[in-house]
Amino acid sequence: MSDIRNRLFPLQRRLDELQAAVGDDNPQANALIAALKDDLSQLAGEAVTTADKADANPETLEQEGDALKCPRCTLRGLYAVKGRVRERGEGAGREALHHCWSCGYEVWRPL
Length: 111
Known about the structure:
The chain is an alpha+beta fold. The protein is built from three helices and four strands; from the N terminus they run H-H-H-E-E-E-E. It has two domains: 2-48; 52-110. Helix content is 42%, strand content 25%.
């Protein structure tokens, strides 16, 4: 879900830019921009789940192993999260949750 929130924030910034460009000249456009901002804020709030709250726990997000290159931000900040291992969906083997300490990207990768 953090991926969804990360995608919503740039949209909110672009709405701020649009509102600055429109100025006070068009009250209808400003009202529409405000409504869209409210909708985005509501979506960002709904994206917060109990799993996300658990991920914010420092014990859960402890780094483990060597850093990998993050596919989103391309920095070497992608670490396996200690204690977050599950069975693979395909059946064979297990996978670990990896979290990027630079951009917040999360992905399950095979062990």
